[in-house]
Amino acid sequence: MENGTKVGLQNGKIALPNGTKKEVILVTGGSGYLGLHLIEALAKGFSSQYDVAYTYQSHPPSPELHQKLPNVHSFQVDLRTGRGLDIISSTLGHPRVVVNCGALSVPRMCEQDPEAAMAINIPRSVVEWLLSQDMSIPPLLIHLSSDQVYEGDKSFYKEEDETKPVNVYGKSKVASENYVKSNYSNYAILRSSIIYGPQPVVPVPKSLPLQWIDRVLSTGDGEGEFLVNEFRCPIFVTDVVRVVELLIAKHADGGMKLVLNLGGPDRLSRSDMADIVAQVRGYKMELVNRVSTLSMDRGVVSPVDTSMDVTKLVAVLGITLTDFATGIALTFNDKTSVLPKKIETTQLTTTYNNNTNITNSN
Ligand SMILES: NC(=O)c1ccc[n+]([C@@H]2O[C@H](COP(=O)([O-])OP(=O)(O)OC[C@H]3O[C@@H](n4cnc5c(N)ncnc54)[C@H](OP(=O)(O)O)[C@@H]3O)[C@@H](O)[C@H]2O)c1
Prior knowledge:
The protein is built from twelve helices and 16 strands. By secondary structure, the protein is of the alpha/beta class. The longest helix has 16 residues, at 168-183. NADP nicotinamide-adenine-dinucleotide phosphate binds next to helix 1 and strand 8.
């Protein structure tokens, strides 16, 4: 099913009024949290050069989304089988860039259904479809992986550290990375930590991490539990979008083989995150219920410390990452927020220069 096409079709391809054909950026899994943020930003920032399209599976575009992003094309695709992908190329032509956000992204659900986790999270259908396109330069594939590829038994993982996942979600992400590296020649793999930020252009139904903490603290009923000993480097969603935009801008010559840790600048425990939310939002710090073990079983083993060294990300893309306190204030659009002093983070030692070779796959 294709919606939202506003430009005339010529021989099955988009035809602009002057006869030039725009290139296509496709976001697979574009109906999810990150995907919706991406299609909104890409439609605004890249629309003169690219047509933006996305895929969904169970969440078709709402009338509100059509109204807000009228020129974005949507297609129903099942990533397990690839059904629906050919309609994209026959309608819009070959994509120049694919950002793969499609995933079974909830670790507990992956644990319950490992077969589905592997079938959806390994982008076999997307890669086979891209390889079937007759293009001199293979389209750039930006593939979302996870910090949960790491075992979580040390701090500040580097890209070249061993991957040793402790749950099915992490295993499916390692398998997805290996699949891309072995079968494709123009890719960027992004090992993302928790992505936080505001709701996208149309709200997603799932619980978002910051909004959940805020709700727990604002009700003040002490319901939530915050681990003092599980560490992550949460990244602001706008920074993730910026990373994708910068990678697209770099893609021109093909042959990219890049693996990047995608995390924010702060290594934080779950209770650190709640403390900072309380400070920025003006809640009492006593409301943060700090625990070392959750009383509730999450149904999945979670790696303890997947904090990442993001020096390579910063050096390769020249990006400035948003600190967590600022990200909270921006999320809630809270101009009166009092930002806490900069959080102490361990000094990173690795140095990369800005010309770090993007063909180095680690
Ligand atoms: N959000 C985070 O904190 C975070 C952290 C680390 C890594 N990541 C990774 O970043 C990527 C994007 O995350 P997200 O939070 O945006 O995920 P999300 O909200 O769960 O969205 C997942 C997307 O995948 C699609 N999808 C699921 N099963 C599918 C299938 N069988 N066929 C086709 N599409 C299917 C969904 O489509 P429908 O909804 O239409 O069914 C949706 O568009 C994922 O790879 C995730 O693992 C996210």
